[in-house]
Amino acid sequence: MPATLTYPGIYVEEVPSGVHPIAGVSTADTAFVDFFARGPINDAQRITSSADFERVFGGLDDLSEASYAIQQYYLNGGQIAWVVRVASGDPGTATLDLGAALGSAPGQAMTLSAANPGSWGNNLQAAAVGVRASDGSIATDRFNLVVREVRPAPGGKVEVLTTEVFRNLNMTVGDKSYAKTVVNDQSQLVHVTDVGLGALPTTATPNDTGDGPADVSAFEEFTGGTPGSRPTANDLVGDADEKTGMYALDRIAPFVFNLLCLPAATNLTTDRDPGPMQSVLSAAEAYCELKRAFLIMDIPVLVATATQMGQYLKDLEALSLRSNHAALYFPRLQMPDALQDNRLRNVGASGTMAGVYARTDSTRGVWKAPAGTDAALRNAQLAVRLDDLENGGLNPLGVNVLRNFPVFGNISWGARTLDGADQQASEWKYIPVRRTALFIEESLYEGLKWVVFEPNDEPLWAQIRMNVGAFMNNLFRQGAFQGNTPTKAYFVKCDSETTTQNDIDRGVVNILVGFAPLKPAEFVVIRIQQLAGQIET
After folding, report:
1. Is residue 96 helix, strand or coil?
2. Residue 92 forms beta bridges with which residues?
3. Which pLDDT score, from 0 to 100, does residue 518 have?
4. Which of 169, 210, 207 shows the shortest CA–CA distance to 190?
5. 294 φ, ψ (degrees, to nearest 5)
6. H helix intervals, 217-348
7. pLDDT > 70? residue 206
């Protein structure tokens, strides 16, 4: 506010500059939706490494196509994944009644359950440990709880993977050490679903250190955990109102996802009924358009030749599944399966390509096509090798072919969206053009929220032009656009021409942003001419 001028002298005021820097959003944060061995159900988790994925979701599982896709994602350069576990097959939750350990007195029982459903919970063990009072006797109102996750080891022994210890618990509701509150707030392994009240019996096994029972036999095992099964179409899609299935990604705000992979969708198609697969992919394409994201689509395992790929494209067209927010790769890949002594497993290419997208974005930018000799496919072999003629038959149809070349190895050799068939003549023919536009759109959407409810007049328009222009100019300097000058590369318009008085009266401000996208050099033509001999003079 202006200072109140009361005395002769100099007054200093700070005047707002109107600068609201717009930061570019992420470009390759990838979402995976599928069945997993463990983990929260219908709750998207941010995962940053393969080890993180194994800790939260159990790692590789033969029933989970996405578990292999996620492994490939990180091996090929992926950094951030959003993983959604769906409740397929109604998996059971392992439980344990610790009443016996607590003396089985009336009102003394405590029931524990695994943190989430699945047969993994059967590897949990727990023990109630007595606490010695100052006089050496066992306290009657306190106990320690030890929970651990184990797995079988040679010689009939067990290997302890994780241990949690909760000390000086009691059964008094409202107390800061109340067992149910403490365990449910802190444990990553279990929940207390029921707990008795009153003083504890003196039969709990004592231990002077308080770190665990003196005898390993004091541990009791959880039972009742059952695995799920491969997801159905309804599991993958979920419910938009309940935020289940892929719609669980709605809850990750203010974060965003940029790529979506649904490897399990290809298991839903049959010769007799393509409906389940269609429902999933159609919903996924619509969801990606809504979220300004991009779908990397897998193909069924039975599509193993170029001819079959051409027929599959016709099926997609009949099902109205061509979209400029999606891309398709052929052929499928083979990768070593750690669960099967590293024998090769046939997998879809979506996880691998999502990693290639992420690697390309970090080294070159989202405007660079994730294809070419530097788009190597790590830890993967091609299920089928194609030649130039077969490649030439699929590329004009909008299929991105994975190729093997001497020296370079297995690489991505296509950069078209599913809307990129030559006959469609789409302006969104190329993947980098589509993804650059999505990046700009999402960045401006997040970076211009300060504009809402500002006075809608020239001072606001000038600030918008300045801030959006600075963002676009930064991209221009990074080489994101065609043109050797800013005026040839992009424009930002927000003035009385874009926003009329009628717009102002309706509370609308219109911002027009244009850019000249970079398009990949898909065909390189070399012309060689023989020079005729010249007559010397």
Report:
1. strand
2. 226
3. 94
4. 169
5. -130, 130
6. 233-237, 275-291, 306-318
7. no
Query: CA 116 from chain center: how many Å?
Result: 20
**Mean per-residue pLDDT for 422-433?**
94
Q: Which residues fall within 8 angstroms of residue 398, CB to CB, at 6 or more apart?
A: 313, 322, 328, 416, 417, 418, 419, 420, 421, 424
- In this predicted structure, the answer to whether residue 121 has a pLDDT above a threshold of 70 is yes
Strands (E), 58-186: 81-85, 95-97, 110-114, 124-132, 138-153, 157-169
The three-point CA angle 193-195-197 to 5° equals 160
Let me know: does 398 contact 420? Beta carbons within 8 Å. Answer: yes
Neighbours of 111 (CB within 10 A): 15
Q: Do 468 and 492 contact (CB within 8 A), yes or no? A: yes
CB 45 within 8 A of CB 33: no
Lowest-confidence pick of 5-19, 292-306, 462-476: 5-19
Q: What does the block give as tokens for 477?
A: 């300097």
Count of all residues that appear for the chain in the document: 537
Q: Which domains does the chain have, with CATH numbers?
A: 1-22+455-537 (no CATH), 30-78+231-433 (3.40.50.11780), 95-221 (no CATH)
Nearest to 288 by CA among 242, 255, 314, 256: 256
Sheet holding 259-261, edge to edge: 45-47, 81-85, 30-34, 259-261, 294-297, 326-330, 400-405, 409-412
Here the tokens at position 264 are 């399990």
Give pLDDT, residue 214: 39
Residue type, position 207, single letter: N
Pick from 323, 337, 330, 329: which is nearest to 354 by CA?
Answer: 329
Residue closest to 306 by CA, chosen among 332, 279, 345: 332
The Cα–Cα gap between 196 and 516 comes to 69
What is the rounded CA–CA span in Å between residue 435 and residue 368? Answer: 10
Does pLDDT of 508 surpass 70?
Answer: yes
pLDDT at residue number 515 = 97
Residues 394, 397, 400, 405, CA torsion sign = positive
**423: exposed, middle or buried (Cβ count in 10 Å: 0-12, 13-18, 19+):** exposed
List C-alpha distances in Å: 518 to 39, 41, 478, 526.
41, 41, 12, 21
User: pLDDT, tens digit, for every residue of 319-362?
Assistant: 888 999 999 999 999 999 999 999 999 999 999 999 999 999 99
